[in-house]
Specification:
Helices cover 31% and strands 13% of the residues. The chain contains eleven helices and ten strands. The protein has helices spanning 25-30, 89-98, 116-130, 146-155, 169-175, 186-200, 217-229, 255-271, 293-302, 345-352, 373-378, and strands at 20-23, 46-51, 86-88, 105-109, 135-139, 159-165, 205-211, 233-238, 278-280, 286-289. Strand 5 (135-139), helix 4 (146-155) and strand 6 (159-165) form a beta-alpha-beta unit. Helix 3 (116-130) runs parallel beside helix 4 and helix 4 crosses helix 6 (186-200). The chain is globular and about 65 Å long. It starts with 19 loop residues before the first strand and ends with a helix. Bound molecules: iron/sulfur cluster (SF4) (2 copies). One iron/sulfur cluster binds next to loops.
Length: 379
């Protein structure tokens, strides 16, 4: 009779962090913890881990599968539309150490729970004790301050991701803050992002930004320019409604809008295209961009702008490619987890129709003469 009480029979409510973590399905397959192969043999070079508590997350973001007010038990709900099986943290740390040739990075994601900050540190330490794998901390800014960020760095994380998600203060309030009966504050997220930037260094901090939460293109461009000026990376996500959430019936961003935002962000981050080079209509939608056609053609030809934005491995190659994170296998890739193939690039070009936005010019920016496509590409 006592066998029924053995740990293996414990319900998931009792298998909490730091002793247990959820592992993204793609990462569980990569580590051999779950059987299966991914569509088009996409690989997953980043092991994404998520803290586990019975209530899921005490925040209430309107688009998130872990939100407090989403119906159902947390462990039955999906997060980013896929299941996240639960494993002992030490087993995962061992599996990472045994698969270092395939694992470019591990990411430990916090949720809103009073245990989440010390547990993030403990999970990071357990990973670090078993291997030198690069580790990102995807933090819940609301629970942290500068000293806690220092502790996370000392535990072994070299990159901090911040789920800013909303591109403007108004959208943040409505989807994550008090407008959503949630705890998060736009000002505090920025304060934490700047503290992380000081502690972790330039481009060692990223803000996740979700396209499709109700923001305008102008909101996004102004955010990209602000982050660029602070040497913080913007990592894009395409909104994909989760069943059962407050935004379950909200539309995804149209593919053309999403592609244009991907390319515009790339031009700002990679080629220093300034804010003044980008114009909007009365609704805040992109209407004109003053960059050389040759530069846009080069970006459309190599396809890099349309790849997933994610933390790098130890060699600088993108590791966190989140295959099928915001689209289903068989649908158009919203972000490509690999360099788009030759035959995919004309399709991307047709989806983007960026030439409709171009204002003829030979150099980047309204000021002119700042960077030529040739020098920029060699930069
Ligand atoms: S804080 Fe993060 S995990 Fe929690 S509801 Fe918001 S988006 Fe989801
Ligand atoms: S990009 Fe990936 S690895 Fe980096 S913080 Fe975000 S989820 Fe984590």
């Amino acid at each position: 009779m006592r066998a029924k009480l053995l740990p293996a029979a414990l319900p998931e409510d009792f298998k909490t962090s730091p002793d247990h973590v959820r592992v993204s399905m793609a990462a569980a397959m990569t580590l051999g913890l779950r059987p299966g192969r991914m569509f088009r043999n996409a690989t997953c070079d980043c092991v994404n881990l998520l803290e586990n508590y019975p209530a899921g997350c005490y925040a209430n973001c309107t688009y998130c599968g872990l939100a407090r007010e989403r119906p159902g038990r947390a462990q039955d709900n999906s997060f980013i539309r896929v299941g996240w099986p639960l494993f002992p943290t030490d087993l995962v740390a061992e599996a990472v150490a045994d698969n270092l040739e395939r694992v470019g990075r591990v990411c430990v994601a916090m949720v809103q729970d009073k245990r989440a900050s010390p547990d993030l540190v403990e999970i990071t330490r357990r990973l670090r004790r078993r291997s030198d794998v690069p580790i990102s901390a995807l933090v819940t800014a609301t629970l942290l301050d500068a000293p806690k960020l220092e502790t996370i760095r000392e535990a072994g994380a070299d990159i901090v991701g911040i789920g800013l998600d909303a591109a403007s203060e108004a959208v943040f309030f409505k989807t994550r803050g008090r407008g959503a009966r949630g705890p998060h504050s736009w000002a505090q997220h920025w304060e934490l992002a700047r503290a992380a930037r000081r502690i972790f260094g330039p481009m060692k901090v990223n803000c996740h930004v979700v396209v499709g939460l109700g923001e305008t293109d102008r909101d996004l461009v102004e955010l990209f320019c602000r982050l660029k000026s602070e040497a913080i990376a913007a990592y894009l996500f395409s909104f994909n409604p989760e069943p059962g959430t407050a935004m379950a019936d909200a539309p995804r961003p149209p593919l053309r809008r999403w592609r244009r935002i991907q390319l515009t962000k790339y031009l700002i981050e990679r080629y220093d295209v300034p804010r003044e080079a980008i114009e909007f209509d009365a609704e805040g939608t992109l209407s004109a961009v003053s960059v050389p056609r040759a530069l846009v053609d080069a970006c459309l030809a190599d396809g890099l702008a349309f790849m997933t934005n994610g933390c790098p491995d130890r060699h600088g190659a993108m590791a966190c490619n989140r295959p099928f994170g915001s689209y289903r296998p068989g649908e158009a890739f919203r972000d490509y987890p690999f360099v788009p193939e030759d035959e995919e690039r004309p399709v991307i070009r047709a989806e983007t129709r960026y030439e409709d936005l171009l204002r003829g010019c030979d150099s980047i920016g309204a000021a002119g003469g700042r960077v030529s496509p040739t020098t920029a590409r060699g930069a």
